[in-house]
TrEMBL record:
Official protein name in the record: Leucine-rich repeat-containing protein 49
SMART domains per UniProt: LRR_SD22 (SM00365), LRR_TYP (SM00369)
SUPFAM superfamilies reported for this sequence: Outer arm dynein light chain 1 (SSF52075)
Source organism phylogeny: Eukaryota, Metazoa, Ecdysozoa, Arthropoda, Hexapoda
Keywords of this entry: Leucine-rich repeat, Repeat
Length: 304
C-alpha cells in the first residue's frame, strides 16, 4: 500500500497496477493507495492532514513508487534517504537522522522494507507527523509506548505481522491509521483516537465489527478481506461521521444497525454470502446512502 505525494490540497484518483485496481486518497499531498481486487471505486476526500513537503523544495521529486515519507531525492540523482539505524540491544534498534535530513523533511520518516522486527526507538523527533513502516516483520506496536509522538497524524504499518491493536493510547492527534495485511483478529485499542478519520484494516483475520464507538470523526473504514459474518444492531454505533464503508470479500450473511451511520454514502458489499433482500433490508435506514455494490452475492443472482 504505497503512499505517494503530490501538489494541491486534496484530490482523488484511481488506476490499475499489476492487474489490480488501486484506490487512493490524497490528504494534503499524501496519497493513501489501497489495492482492492476488482474495485475501481475511491476513498472519500477528507481535509488535509499534512502539508505538501515540496512547498519549500520545488525541485525535489519522488525517487521511488514504493518507498515513502522521506524517500525524496533530486530528480535523477538516485540518492537514498539518510537514516542511521543502530542495534542497541537484543532485538532493539535505534533510529537517528542527520541534521540535514531533519531540515529537508522535518515531520516525516519512512522505514519501509527494512526487515524490522520491532518499532525502532526514534530519537529527537518531537515534530514527527508521518511514520511509515510498510513491508516489515513487525509483530507488535509496543515500541510506540516510549516514543513522544503526540503530533503524529499518519501511521502506516501495512504488510507486517501485527496480531493485536495496542499501544496507540498516546497518539491523540492521529487521523490516518493504515493496518492492512496483518494478522489482527479483533478491533480494539482505538478508544483514544478520537480524531481518527481513516481506518484501514483490510486483509486481516477480523470476525466481528467492534471497538469503534468512540470514533465520532471516522469517515472511511476499510474492512475488506476479513472473516466478518454479520453486522449487528450496535456494531456501527458511534460512527456518526462515517461516509464510506468497505466490507468486500468477507462472509457476510446479515446486515443490521445501519440507522447508526446517518452520513454513510458508499457501501461496498461485493463477494459476500448475502442471500436475499431481507438480509440487507436494514440498508433502507441509511438515509444518505447513494451507492451500494452487491455483485458476487447470491442475492445479486436472483430476481430481486
Amino acid at each position: 500500500m504505497p503512499i505517494t505525494f503530490s501538489r494541491g490540497n486534496v484530490r482523488k484518483l484511481a488506476f490499475r497496477s499489476r492487474g489490480r485496481s488501486v484506490q487512493s486518497l490524497d490528504i494534503g499531498g499524501s496519497r493513501v493507495e489501497t489495492p482492492q481486487s476488482g474495485d475501481d471505486r475511491l476513498f472519500l476526500q477528507i481535509k488535509p492532514a499534512l502539508a505538501d513537503p515540496r512547498a519549500a523544495h520545488p525541485a525535489i521529486q519522488r525517487s521511488s513508487t514504493i518507498l515513502t515519507g522521506n524517500d525524496y531525492s533530486n530528480k535523477g540523482d538516485g540518492k537514498d534517504d539518510v537514516l542511521n539505524l543502530q542495534a542497541v540491544g537484543e532485538g532493539k534498534v535505534q533510529l537517528s537522522r542527520t541534521p540535514q535530513e531533519k531540515d529537508r523533511l522535518p515531520d516525516r520518516i519512512s522505514l519501509d522494507r527494512r526487515g524490522l522486527s520491532s518499532i525502532p526507538n526514534i530519537v529527537g523527533e518531537p515534530t514527527l507527523r508521518l511514520l511509515s513502516l510498510q513491508h516489515n516483520l513487525i509483530n507488535s506496536l509496543s515500541g510506540l509506548v516510549p516514543l513522544e509522538l503526540g503530533k503524529l497524524v499518519f501511521l502506516d504499518v501495512y504488510d507486517n505481522q501485527i496480531d493485536k491493536i495496542t499501544s496507540l493510547e498516546k497518539l491523540f492527534s492521529l487521523r490516518v491509521l493504515l493496518m492492512g495485511k496483518n494478522r489482527i483478529k479483533r478491533i480494539e485499542g482505538l478508544s483514544n483516537l478520537v480524531k481518527l478519520e481513516v481506518l484501514d484494516l483490510h486483509g486481516n483475520r477480523i470476525t466481528k465489527v467492534s471497538g469503534l464507538s468512540n470514533l465520532n470523526e471516522l469517515k472511511v473504514l476499510n474492512l475488506a478481506g476479513n472473516q466478518i459474518k454479520c453486522i449487528g444492531q450496535i456494531d456501527l454505533q458511534g460512527l456518526v461521521s462515517l461516509r464510506e464503508l468497505n466490507l468486500k470479500r468477507n462472509k457476510l450473511r446479515k446486515l443490521l444497525g445501519f440507522q447508526k451511520v446517518p452520513q454513510l454514502q458508499k457501501l461496498f458489499l461485493s463477494n459476500n454470502d448475502l442471500q436475499s433482500v431481507e438480509d440487507v433490508s436494514s440498508l433502507a435506514e441509511a438515509m444518505s446512502l447513494v451507492e451500494v455494490t452487491l455483485d458476487g452475492n447470491p442475492v445479486a443472482l436472483g430476481g430481486d
